[in-house]
Amino acid sequence: MQNIKQRYNIVGNCEALNRALDVALQVAPTDLSVLIVGESGVGKEIIPRVIHDNSPRRREKYFAINCGSIPEGTIDSELFGHVKGSFTGAINDSPGYFGVANKGTLFLDEVGELPIATQARLLRVLENGEYIPVGATEVRKTDVRIVAATNVNIRQAISEGRFREDLYYRLNQVPIQMPPLRERGEDIILLFRLFAMQMAEKYRMDKVVLTDEAKQMLMRYKWPGNVRQLKNITEQISILSPERQITSELLARFIPQDQETTQLATIHTDGDHSFENEREILYKILFELRSNVNDMRREMGTLKKQLEDVQGQRLQTGNNQLATTQLSTYRNLSDERLTEDAEAEEYIEPEREPENLNVNDWSRQALEKALDRNGGNRKRAAMELGISDRTLYRRLKQYGLDK
Fold first, then answer.
1. Measured between alpha carbons, how far is residue 356 from residues 113, 182, 321, 330 in Å?
2. What's the DSSP call for residue 94?
3. Which of 92, 262, 313, 381 has the most CB atoms around it within 10 Å of its CB?
């Protein structure tokens, strides 16, 4: 056990850690599938390496794959390969990890993030070693040892339909539970010393040490981020602390104040609804989106009606202004005193006179009334209207009153 810890730089003597390493060494010579369960940051990636290096496959290839980092649209191609032309960008055949790792070991980290369709493919490989590359028509065989790890609650994922129950039993032939850091007791102090020493050697600085009060404070903290969080805090203290001896007061500056929680972030739920089910989240988003679209339609209809009203008002105002302008133009022309010169009279031909029907009717009525008041005398009617005799004659001719 001590040789294994030294080889893989494993620090700690807690019973749960020793049990996990012991199970890994016992299962290594077999081909049984192993499922490693533990919180994020506890060091689950060490166990599959120990299993592979102490198995008959140690001379073959070992691949560690983070299933949560591969896009859903390409994960089947990454794992099981594809043939040329099976999709856009597939310019060559690819054997995939199951083809390349034949006779070796595959570590599937975050296996709980696999899509349901990919889980079905993985189940077939675990049962009989067969798989079909994307776009292919023939079955291929592989001999791969599977070690999987997850930090999600698999039983809850099964109840929510996000993980296949049959796949869980195939992966869980041998379970290994990695303990969280808060349950490892004195291992927390040992790990702090290791990380502090590594920082001192790397950056050639004095190593930070803890007082007894600081050690107790370090062990009371719940460490939701586990070993990864402890390493980050140790590195921060090594770089940022002006003192090399860390007291509880100095340590409190680097440790979050909430020491009771075991979660990095608290998830709030409304009432009895739990939005951990992705379909429920999707339905909620679609419902809100439809409501927003309906609101936008109503607002667009109101804006369209307002715009039509404004355009109608502008059009009516424009017509009124045009009529007023034409009437003013006619009055200005009528008030001008023109000379008796016939050439000048001919120069101001009616092309420039307004053509508006309302103005013409008004002009005709004015001529008729002027003639009636002057007993049909055109000269006196022309003087009353302020126009010349020739202009009066043209108006009479234009309106058919010259008869």
1. 79, 95, 13, 10
2. B
3. 381
| pLDDT tens per residue, range 309-320 | 777 776 666 656
Closest CA to 172 of 147, 152, 195, 192: 147
Q: How far is Cα 177 from Cα 195, in angstroms, rounded to an integer? A: 24
**To the nearest whole number, what is the mean pLDDT of the chain?**
83
List Cα–Cα distances, 319 to 219, 286, 315, in angstroms. 87, 49, 6
The single residue listed with the structure tokens 């296949």 is 164
Question: Can you spell out the DSSP letters for 139-174?
Answer: -EE---EEEEEE-S-HHHHHHTTSS-HHHHHHHTTE
Instruction: Note whether 105 and 57 are within 8 A (CB).
Output: yes
What number of other Cβ atoms are within 10 A of residue 17's Cβ? 20
Q: Quickly tell me which residue has 């790990």 as its tokens.
A: 191
62-97 pLDDT tens trace = 999 999 999 988 999 999 999 998 888 888 999 999
Distance CA 16, CA 289 (A): 49
Structure tokens at 71: 């896009």
Dihedrals phi, psi of 141, to nearest 5 degrees: -110, 150
- The DSSP code sequence of 15-76 is HHHHHHHHHHHHHTTS---EEEE--TTS-TTHHHHHHHHTSTTTTS-EEEEEGGGS-TTTHH
Distance CA 374, CA 366 (A): 12
Per the CB < 8 A criterion, the answer to whether 340 and 368 are in contact is: no
Query: Measured between alpha carbons, how far is 220 from 146 in angstroms, rounded to an integer?
Result: 37
Q: Name the packing angle between helices 15-27 and 46-53 (round to 10°).
A: 40
Residue 334 has pLDDT above 90, yes or no: no
* Residue 47 identity (one-letter amino acid): I
For 144-298, where are the E strands, in sequence order?
A: 145-150, 174-177, 209-210, 245-246
- Scan for tokens 């307002």, then name that residue: 306
Distance CA 74, CA 80 (A): 10
d(CA 112, CA 160): 12
Region of 96 please: left (phi>0), alpha (psi -120 to 50) or beta. left
Read off the pLDDT of residues 381-392 as tens digits, 9 standing for 90 and up.
888 777 887 787
State the pairing for strand pair 62-66/34-37.
unpaired
